[in-house]
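Re: that chain you flagged

S.,

Sorry for the slow reply, it's been a week of failed gels. I finally had a moment to sit down with the sequence you sent. For the record, here it is as I used it:
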Amino acid sequence: MPWGSSPTTWRGTPLGSPGSRFSWRSCSGGGTLSRRRPERSRLRIYLDVLDAVEREGGRARITKVLSASGVPYDRFLRFLGELESRGLLLDSRDGDARYLEITAEGRKFLEELRRMDRFLRGFGLGIRRPSLPFLSKIYL
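Prediction finished late last night. Pasting the structure tokens below so you have them in one place:
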């Protein structure tokens, strides 16, 4: 069978298929097997972004928050715009550096998200995937 004529599999599931927990990443002709991150809800990403800023003392460089959020840059900018428009984060500059600052309203929202996540984890759910779509309608 010629190279590339059949899908690469890992334990019987084609890589990159919906049932696969692994994906094949190719870079300059080589490839690596990497573990996929579970799909996260908008609330989970908000929690990760706000938590990253909070852990830095309420003011963090944007690159640090981007790294902690684990989403691509274009999606990160969209989420950042949503958080800013809701008054949860402020975008500020100090010379050439760009910072994100959490507001008092952002701290309250973060605490409520954490509380809700703890409550849901008690039932084995948590804020992970859009399996609970009603939460987005209630809290956003």
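What I noticed first: Helices lie at 42-55, 62-69, 73-85, 104-121, 133-139.

Talk soon,
D.
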